[in-house]
Amino acid sequence: MAEILGKNAPSKIEVLDQQSLRRSSSKYAAFWEGLQQHLFKNDTEAAVVLYGTPIADDRYRQFKSRFKRKLLNTFFFIDPYQPQTGSFDAALKFCNRQLALVHLLKTHGATHTAIVEATQIQALALKYRLSGMVVQSASLLREIYALQGSKKEFDAQQSLIEAFYPHWNAEIQAEGYLQSIRLVCYGTPRLAEAQTAQVVLWCDELLSLTEQFDTPIVSLAAFEAWMLRFEAEGNYQAMEETGLQAENWLVQNPTWASKDNMLRFAMLRLRTALHTLDFKTGRAIAEQALKISHLTPDDHLVLMELLLLLSIRTDSLLHVFAVYKEAIEYKYFSKITAEHEAKWNIFTVYVHLLKQLNSVNQQIVLFQKRKAFVVEDFMSASIPFEPRQENKTILLAVAQIAFLLRAKLFDKAAKQIEWLGSLINTLRHKEDFARQAAFIKLLNQLRLNNFNTAGLKKTEVPLRTLHEIPFRYNGRLQYLEVIPYPKLWEMILKLLS
């Protein structure tokens, strides 16, 4: 290896390490910090900070290109066995990284080292039943042994390929079915008849694969697929039973009880509790899941999000404020993704709305480290419309209208209701916004009646729509509904009465 690197070694390996990111004078450190803290909305803002010019010129473009190259190089040096990685997850990352290394070693002629590394990958892959890794490492080793004329070793690798390739092929099929089901189920809150039939067919194919191949990837894919199918059908009892079976399977197969696998089923079960209004079970699931080792900030906040929504939907107000406080004071809150941050900004608005609509004592909403929410500022703010985030706009506008009604600012509320009504009529895929549209129609009838609750007309159809089209939330912001619209309608009527 030393001889090979002597001919090919770069003069300098450009990576982003802790030392370079601590230098206060470094543009890389400034850019890194800005990305971590979500300080830049676009390249123009980044160029202003780094070069003092609002124009993303050649200097900035060259800098960004070098920064990207450093990022890519750094990924290759991430330690798969760092403290925040569980044993299974670490093994999977290690195998993927080392497989790339073996390809490089073989390409450059370091055959002996390539054999050693590939054999190590294979041993881990066999331990964790990673069929794909077994086949890929065996294929590399088989090629090397063929060139060396080592028939015994060649035959051993050929046997492994013949034994594991059918399983790997089944895993690829299973993952394809699961990914197709995710695509359909997460793409809309309610499936069309043809979509439901296709999901049923894919689930049946997965079940057939589990009967033919005893492989963890196929089994886990089938569990999740059937849970998603039952969720789409609104069969939450069957969804919960399948989730319990999946968790029991992980107990019986502890090697595969990784953070990701435990969390995927805990979140699905928590979604079941959210839709069945089972606060006791949901809280127990969330509390247990929060104890899973190596959760990322986003993992942590998704669990808190589902628990917050469950608390709201079951009228557990004290838990609403406790969960909200714990979430926003979470020490890694600033490291969550932009989508999760957008959700928690919405939750902030609705938690304060709940406090006002329920006349909750001011002291219950405890001190928070984030910028204070000021109701008056929110009522006077313009609600921006963001393409592909229509529901975010609707949620904020609805909350603003509720605040305006409480403050008896009826003219401003009327203007917002009219604006919201025109907005909902311009949306594509209106079928995905049926509940929002029904609630906006109720608000509009209230506006037409000069915000008098007596003598309200034409509310039967939208109320029936809210009853007939159930709330379905699968984690996507587009389908979020914080306070259930029927409940929010009752709160508004009570407020105005």
Overview of the structural elements:
With 497 residues, this protein is mainly alpha-helical. It is built from 23 helices and no strands. The chain is globular and about 90 Å long. The relative contact order is 0.05. The mean pLDDT is 87.
Shape: globular
User: What structural class should be given to the helix and strand makeup?
Assistant: mainly alpha
Distance between the termini: 82 Å
Largest sheet: none
**Could you report the average pLDDT, rounded to the nearest whole number?**
87
Taking pLDDT < 50 over at least 5 consecutive residues as the criterion, the unreliable ranges are none
Radius of gyration: 27 Å
Strand coverage percent: under 5%
Indicate the percent of residues in helices: over 70%
What is the total tally of β strands? Answer: 0
Order of helices and strands: HHHHHHHHHHHHHHHHHHHHHHH
- How many helices? The count is 23
Summarize the helices and strands and which ones pair or pack.
Blueprint: H1 2-8, H2 18-22, H3 27-36, H4 43-51, H5 58-75, H6 87-107, H7 111-128, H8 131-148, H9 151-185, H10 193-212, H11 216-233, H12 236-252, H13 259-276, H14 279-289, H15 297-313, H16 317-328, H17 338-357, H18 375-380, H19 390-406, H20 410-426, H21 434-448, H22 460-468, H23 485-496
What brief labels describe this structure?
single chain; 497 residues; mainly alpha; 23 helices
